[in-house]
Amino acid sequence: MEELRRSYSRLCKESGAEPQEGVLQQLHELPRGRLDLATQSLTVDTCRALGKLLQKEALLTQLVLSDCMLSEEGATLLLQGLCTNTTVRFLDLKGNNLRAAGAEALGKLLRQSKSIQSLTLEWNNLGTWEDAFATFCRALASNGSLQQLDLRNNQISHKGAEELALALKSNASLQQLDLRWNNIGLLGGRALVNCLPSNRTLWRLELAGNSVPGDILRAVEQAMDHNQDRQTTFRENQARAHVLSKEMRHLREEKSKQFLDLMETIDKQREEMARSSRASAARVGQLQEALNERHSIINALKAKLQMAEATLVLSEQKAQDLGELLATAEQEQRSLVQRQAKEHRLEQQVGRHGSGRGCMVAGAGGILAPSHPQEAAERESKLLRDLSAANEKNLLLQSQVDELERKVKSLQEQLFLTRQELTNTSAELKMRAVQAEERLDLEKKRSRQSLEDSEQLRFKEVEHMTRHLEESEKAMQERVQRLEAARLSLEEELSRVKAVALNERGQAEEELIKAKNQVRLEEQQRLAHLEEKLRLLAQARDEAQSTCLQQKQTVADAQARASQLGQQVEGLRRRLEELQQELSNKDQERVAEVTRVRVELQEQNGRLQAELTAQEALKEKAAALERQLKVMASDHREALLDRESENACLREKLRLKEAEITRIRDEEAQRASFLQNAVLAYVQGSPLRALSPQK
User: What is the CA radius of gyration of the chain?
Assistant: First the structure.
């Protein structure tokens, strides 16, 4: 606020004037954007400074300048500053004796300003200068923000009222207009009444103290009531449209949320299926690695077998060599035994022939006889030693052959066992590979089938949700259009009926005035008779008023019935909201149940993979769960169809209630028109009407 004071002081010094203390004090306080300068005598320099200050001030929303004794120049400077202001909503210029220049400045303000909503101009002289006031009225016709205008005590004549009537035909924002204590008169009142059917926003028009006849005041009151009813209906329709749009937005949000949840569930299922496929691939990889390890073991066993076969061949070759050596040794032994036996026989023969020779041989064999037995003994001992060595060698070779035969036999047994183990291992690996391939194919088929089922289910649910959302949106739009069309038709019919009633009433009042003038010109001798006729007319009027009161009571009863029907409609709407909430809860429970069942199925699939022994039982359980899921889905679909049928029934009931309300309103409007026609016919057929041609 100090900044406002400094700006005001600076502007005053620039114009060569002293700032006013009262203005400085009000600028210092400035409660809630309200600048109250009432009863402050503002000079021209102060008005110039305030006008420059208001051009860029964004904190003020209310400006009170009542009873400030503004001059024409000061008011013009202030209003010029307000032309570019975009924050002031309330302007009070009460009691400032504004004249032609002020009216023109106000017209410029109304043409340029888009923010002022309330303008108080009480106790001024705007209507004294007709041209300036016409400029003000033309600016009012083009203004689109002003909602409240106070023109009390402004010396407005019937011509000014006609200019105001022309402005009101074009204005579409003014809601309250106060014209009390002016000089509008009969012509101005008629001009205002004639312009009111073209204006649908003005719902408060004050004309007291303007010498306006009572019938015009009543017509204005009826027009204001009509506009007020129209505004009320419009606000109610806006509120209903807002509620319906909010419901549609809420339904869209719920449907989008359900769609997102469904997509999230599908993504989770896809992730879980990808995870299971990855786990299956990892399991297959592990099985492949185990198969490769078994193949490597088989290859190692084959290598060992080949090595054992080679060793066996070498052992057999060695055994064959040893057998050949043994046969050679045995042959040598036999040949040695034969030679030794032959030598022994030769020795025996020599011994037998030696005794026949005697002395002949004694001298020659004296030296040989002693040496020959010794050599034989040595040779015999050598032969015995060779024989024993050969026997030992033979035994050793025999033991080696036996050992080699045992080794060959053990190797053959080991080779047989190895071949058998290799055959069993190969058969087992082949069987496991076949089982793994079958299980992999089964898992692939199951994953593909579950993916296809989930895709089909998602597509069906998305299609169903989209179709349901489109149908609900289309139904809501059609309902809004029907309501809007009904509202427009009712407004047109009501305005047409009231315009006809106003015209007929105006004609009836004119005829009544003519009849009164004729009665004043009649002779004194007919005065008593005319007074009696007037008394009868008064009684008829009282009866008509009582009939109108009864009709109003009937209308009030119909309105009460309409309010009861509206309450019933609200109850039905709340019931519809509860059913929709219950339906959404069922959808959430179904989604949760489906998610839970799917999680259980996935856990069971994991246990199926982990426990191969319980595979068949788990398959049966999964099938049972799938059947249960299908049964639950079918039950939920049936429940959803039931809810939709119930919603359709409720909508049909609501439509019937609205049709009944519309019919009741039409009947009441028709009754009111019939009553007005009856009153007018009664007035036209009165004795006063019958006396006019006799003159």
Answer: 63
Report how far apart, in Å, the C-alpha atoms of 278 and of each of 272, 275, 360, 618 are: 9, 5, 117, 21
Residue 64 pairs with which residues in a beta bridge?
A: 36, 92
**H or E element in which residue 127 lies:** none
Helix, strand and coil content of the chain, in percent to the nearest 5, comes to 80, 5, 15
461-464 own/partner pairs: CB under 8 Å, 24+ apart: 461/262, 462/259, 462/262
Q: Is the pLDDT of residue 682 over 80?
A: no
545: Cβ contacts below 8 Å, ≥ 6 apart: none
**Whole-number pLDDT of residue 691:** 42
435-439: which pairs have CB atoms within 8 A and are 24 or more residues apart?
A: 436/284, 436/287
Phi first, then psi: what are they for 375, rounded to 5°? Answer: -65, -40
Spatial neighbors of 566 by CB under 8 A, at least 6 apart, are: 661
Assessment of whether the complete model's pTM goes beyond 0.90: no
Could you tell me which of 200, 204, 197, 208 has the C-alpha nearest to residue 221?
Answer: 204
Q: What is the mean pLDDT of the chain?
A: 81
Contacts of 599 (CB under 8 A, 6+ apart): none
Burial class (CB in 10 A: 0-12, 13-18, 19+), 278: exposed
3-state secondary structure of 118: strand
| 325-329 contact pairs (CB < 8 A, 24+) | 325/397, 326/394, 326/397, 326/398, 326/401, 329/390, 329/393, 329/394, 329/397
Ramachandran region, residue 579 (left: φ > 0; alpha: ψ -120 to 50; beta: rest): alpha
**pLDDT higher than 50, residue 366:** no
CA distance 41 to 35: 15
